[in-house]
Structure formats: C-alpha cells, structure tokens
Write a structure and sequence with these properties.
This protein has about 650 residues and is α/β, with parallel strands linked by helices. Helices cover about 35% and strands about 20% of the residues. The strands form 4 sheets. It has a 10-stranded mixed β-sheet with strand order 6-17-16-18-19-15-20-21-22-23, sandwiched between helices. The protein has a 5-stranded antiparallel β-sheet with strand order 1-2-3-4-5. Strands 7-8-9-10 form a 4-stranded antiparallel β-sheet. A hairpin with a 4-residue loop joins strand 22 and strand 23. Helix 7 crosses helix 9 and helix 16 runs parallel beside helix 18.
C-alpha cells in the first residue's frame, strides 16, 4: 500500500511543474509544522522513517525522503548508506523544505500537496501557480492593440465607454490616462447568439526587478453587461492593474478589490493604488512576488460579506503584520462609492484603517463597519443565492462562508446530481469551487455538469461547433477537481483542500461522499470513530478557511418506504451536531402491494422533496417539492399543487 501511494505521489509531482510561492511575510506557526510532521509525514514513511532537530533548532531533518515523489532518483537512492540519511530538511518556521541529496525544494503547500499525491486538476485555462516572473514562454497581448486601446478611448468610437467612466464612475480623464485605461469592442455570447459590446480595457502590469514596466495581459469588461468580461490572451502571465504608477521607492501600497476603486483612491488622494486581478474571488500566488517589497499594505475590499471574507484571507497570504484593512465609511460599499459621494471620504477611510486582529480574536472596531452595513443591507448577508432553487434559498438563506452542510438521501435518489446543480449555481456567480468525487469519475461528473449548465431542451448537441461553444463556456467556470477516486484517506483530501484554498482561493467545496473517505482509514479503528474524526477535520477547515463545505453522507439502512430524519444519518451523532445545515433529499420508495410484482406498480415518477432538517443560521425548517428533467439533468422546484409527473417533462428553461 505504501509503495502504491509513493508511485501515485511520484506521478502527481511530475504533473505539477510549478512550485507554489509563499510570501516571506507569512509564516506557518512552528507548532503546526512540528505537529504535521509527527502526525502525517512520519506515519506515511513507515517504520523506518524518523526525524530529528538540527543543531540550530530551525529545521526538522527526516531520515528518509517522505516518498519517492519528492526526490529525483540518484545513484545514492536505496543504498542505505548512513551518509545519505537525514538530508531532507523542513523549516520549522514556515514549512518550506529542501533536500540536500537531490536539490529538491518547495513551499509548505508543495509539501502538503506532495503528501496528498493529488494535484487538483482544473478546467480553467487561466490557472497558474509559478512564483517567478516569466518571459518568452507565455503569450502576451499584441503590442499594437494594447497601445491602440488607450488612444481609442478618447476617439469618437470610445465615447460610450468614456461617458460611462466619467459620468457613472466619476473618473476624470487624467486618471484614466495615467492608468492606461482603453476602449475595445468585443463579442460575447448572449444565449444562442453573439453580440458586440463596448468595453473598457485594463492593462495588467509587471515590473520585473529594475526593468521597465510591461503589459502582460488585458482585462476587457463590457460597460453594458457586468458579467461580460474576459482576460486576454488566455494562458498569459499574472500582473497588477496600476503597478506602473507605483514609485520604485514606495514602501506603502493600497490594494483594492476592483479597477474603479484603485483609480478612485489615486484620484482622491494621489496615493499609489493597484487592484486585485480577480477581485474578491482570489489572490493568485503568482502575484505575491510583485508585492514582496512593500512594508505596509492597505487592503480595501468591498463592504459586503464576500469582501470582508476576502480581506481576511488575503491578509493571511500577504502577511498580517504588514496589512491594514480599510472599510468604506458612511454606508459606502467601496472606494468608488466614496469618490462619487464625497472624495474626502476616501482619505478618511484610509486614515481610519486598522490592522487585522489575530485569527482567533476580533474587536468591535473591526466589526463595526460590517455590523452597520449588515443592519442597513440585510439582504446582502444571507449567503450566496441558489438561482435554481429560490424556495430552498428562502429557507436556508443561501450558502455562507465557513459553514458545513450535510446532504443525505437514499441510495440512487440523486444526491450527486443535486450537489452538482448547487455547485453550478455558485460557479456561475463566480465562486471558485473544488469537487472531490470519490464515487463518480470526474469525466462522468463533468458531463453531468455540462448538461446542467447548458439547460438545452434537446440535450447536448451533436454538431462539433455547438458542442465546442458549450465546452468553452463551461471551461471558463472557476472549477477544480481532485484526482481521487474510490477509497481515499481523509488526510490526503484535507491536504488537497488546503492547497486549493491557498492557490485558487476556493469558496465552495463538495465532497461526495463521506463513506469513501472512512473506508481508507486504519483497519483497527472503529468506522464511527473514523467518521467523527473526518467530520471534525472538515468542520475545522470550513471555519478556519472561511469555505463552504458540502459533504454528502449516506443514511443508515432503514425502511425504504419511510422518509429519512436527522437520526437516519449513518454513524454517530457528531455529523448532525457539527453541521450548520442538514439537507435531506427525500425519495421514499413505493410500497409493493401484496400479491403484485414491483414492476406492476405505478410507473409515475416517485415524488421527491428536499427537507431542511437543520438550519443553524436562520432556524427555518421546511420542505421544497422537486421535479427532475432527464434531458437537462436538472431539478426544478414545484409550485403548490403541481405534480412531479406534470413538471418532469415541461420544466425546462
């Protein structure tokens, strides 16, 4: 078994070509590194593995490499010579590793990824994790086009975009020119057709060392439809909008959630400001090297729950000791709102900013802005809505960060399909999502999700051109899969989740299902104890990382003609106790009448409904009747009095 895991890690390490950058301003606590080596690394190495602290006390030295996946084969491998022992060093303050035998090295997240043996695969072509500023090996925007866009903004053809930037966003021509904002016309899909829309262009900039600033990509955003946005060219480098405006000797920097906010800060105060490339969705590790030189960073995200959660996550990546969290005053959402209401509010917000508290502590000063904003806009704090399920959203009040949701139901009832449709709703709202599917292969799950997103009455098209267009739309979703299948150890799953949370800033994780993760535990452990430990790990991850985790759990073996309850969840009571929400997909089987075969029973669709059996946030319980359409592979909520048979064929969008 250990040999099989080592081979798997070796394959996964070869598949990962880029190390994950971790800022020198952040440090994994020494006690966390020591505990991980003791409880995870040493047991995985078998009885011959051992560790000791070096003479300086700064490193843990492993007798052997954690697995064959970490070190390149050398002539010393497997010789058993004492001189080859204790060459693998793990920095106790930070978790970075270095092998003095083969030269292999990596960050704390590389170590955890290597231990899990699973690189989360991505359907998104924009994902990169390299810590280096690369050149020559990635596409760049056409220099002539990039130079023409800022000029076009001030021509007649760019009048609509310029009018929007001036009048709606309150940005003056000088600010637009300094930041190199431009105009371009681009086609976007609108249902079955493509439409031309006027767009603002925002250059992503890199400034390598003492070299000149260069545009590595362009973000193109429609001024008519907010969701119509793309980054050109696909697969290019990461950069920061506005980085070229920052003086070379600057020690402070303002980072905002959006491009309009960065320009608002500059226009109102004259201070250097850049924007996050992906807004509140993520802070790619490849951007971190561009920010290493700054001693103080003002982090200004929006005042909604997503912005508050992003500020907490990003300050941890950047180094909490150098981050100052900014909150917009006077019921403003962001810096651009402040500029339009009163430019002096921008300076006031920066002056009133405070450092984030310890992860385990919070003061009312930090909470005050969020409390006031939540009181004035309670609709923004009910969690991410599920457009497919408005009635269910009304009960659970959406999907909130840091919560654990259990989804259970009879075998074959459609739990995976329901979880998949929920994740499609969140993906389409821009929430990066990680799927761990241990029962259904990733390719089969992707086909299901593709059908759900397409929503086509006639199913997926056979024509290659149309199918490619649907796949292109699907590929743009911030979706990632774990490369696990069948029985998988919980430690491996958690390591992959930690990697995805750091690198891709995932906000939503689906694990399907719990039983496959408890089957891989130690043989001498009780299955219930293994399940309780797994629940505790996922609960801790959701709370600590601010990620919503959906965990699919099988029920006990009970009478299939009866509906399920909280006590029907397989295992002990810990699952229901730790969960914030419990959703039960009810699909009781039709009882067979005496003297009749089951095939003689009614062929009408079995009624299904989703029961909210626990709701810690809102406390509201209830049920929502559902119909299922085989063509679209989607569930649809039923109105009062409707039947599953009448809706199953007609409820197609």
């Amino acid at each position: 078994r250990l040999a099989a895991r080592a081979a798997r890690r070796r394959r996964r390490r070869r598949a990962s070509t880029a190390d994950v950058f971790v800022s020198r301003h952040t440090a994994v606590p020494r006690e966390d590194v020591d505990a991980y080596v003791k409880t995870r690394v040493l047991p995985a190495g078998g009885p011959s593995q051992a560790a000791r602290v070096d003479g300086s006390g700064a490193n843990l030295l492993l007798k052997e490499c954690p697995s064959a996946g970490f070190c390149s084969p050398t002539k010393y491998a497997g010789t058993g010579k004492p001189g080859n022992d204790y060459k693998f060093a793990i920095l106790r303050d930070g978790g970075a590793y270095f092998c003095h035998r083969c030269g292999g090295k990596g960050s704390w997240y590389d170590l955890r990824l290597g231990m899990s043996g699973a690189v989360p695969s991505s359907l998104e072509g924009e994902v990169q994790s390299t810590p280096r500023v690369r050149s020559g090996d990635t596409p760049r925007p056409d220099a002539a086009i990039a130079a023409r866009c800022p000029v076009a903004l001030f021509d007649a053809q760019g009048s609509e975009v310029k009018r929007y930037l001036n009048d709606t966003r309150g940005l003056d021509d000088t600010t637009l020119a300094v930041y190199g904002v431009g105009y371009a016309s681009r086609k976007f899909r609108d249902g079955e057709r493509w439409v031309d829309e006027p767009c603002a262009t925002f250059p992503w900039i890199q400034v390598p060392g003492d070299g000149p600033a260069s545009t590595v990509r362009l973000k193109v955003r429609s001024v008519r439809t907010k969701r119509h946005m793309r980054v050109e060219p696909a697969g290019g480098d990461w950069g920061l909008f506005g980085l070229h405006t920052v003086p070379a000797d600057a020690a402070e920097l303002v980072i905002t959630e959006g491009e309009y906010d960065a320009m608002a800060v500059y226009q109102a105060t004259g201070r250097a400001a850049v924007s996050l490339p992906n807004g509140a969705a993520s802070l790619p590790p490849a951007v971190l090297p561009l920010l290493e030189r700054f001693k103080r960073i003002f982090l200004w995200c929006d005042g909604d729950e997503a912005g508050v959660n992003a500020a907490r996550k990003f300050s941890a990546k950047l180094g909490r000791h150098r981050c100052v969290v900014v909150r917009a005053p006077d019921d403003c959402k962001d810096a651009n709102d402040c500029l339009r209401k009163d430019p002096s509010l921008v300076k006031r917000a920066l002056d009133d900013a405070g450092a984030p508290d310890h992860d385990g502590l919070v003061s009312f000063k930090e909470l005050r802005g969020q409390v006031l904003h939540e009181l004035r806009h309670p609709d923004l704090y009910v969690g991410a809505p599920l457009p497919s399920f408005p009635k269910l959203t009304g009960l659970v009040k959406g999907a909130r960060p840091g919560e654990l949701t259990l989804l259970t139901g009879p075998s074959g009832a459609g739990k995976t399909t329901l979880a998949s449709q929920i994740s499609i709703d969140l993906l389409e709202s821009g929430a990066p999502t990680l799927w761990g599917s241990f029962e259904v292969k990733n390719s089969a799950l992707a086909i299901k999700m593709l059908r759900q997103q397409a929503r086509r009455r006639d199913g997926l098209p056979n024509e290659p051109r149309l199918l490619d267009a649907l796949c292109d739309d699907f590929q743009r979703l911030p979706l990632h899969f774990m490369r696990f299948h069948a029985a998988t150890e919980v430690d491996d799953v958690v390591d992959a989740m930690e990697f995805a949370a750091y690198v891709h800033d995932v906000e939503h994780v689906v694990l399907d299902n719990l039983q496959f993760m408890t089957q891989a535990g130690p043989r001498d452990a009780s299955r219930f104890e293994a399940q309780d430990r797994a629940i505790a790990r996922f609960r801790d991850f959701a709370t600590r990382r601010g990620v919503h985790v959906v965990l699919v759990v099988h029920p006990r073996k009970e009478d299939p003609t009866q509906k399920l309850a909280l006590t029907s969840i397989y295992g002990g009571a810990k699952a229901a106790q730790e969960a914030d929400n419990v959703l039960i997909l009810q699909a009781p089987a039709q009882p067979v009448a005496p003297g009749h075969a089951s095939s003689q029973q009614s062929q009408a669709p079995i009624p299904k409904w989703v029961e909210v059996a626990k709701n810690r946030y809102a406390g509201t319980l209830g049920s929502v009747m559902m119909a299922f359409n085989d063509t679209t592979c989607r569930y649809y909520e039923l109105s009062a009095g409707a039947s599953a048979s009448s809706a199953s064929g007609a409820a197609v969008r």
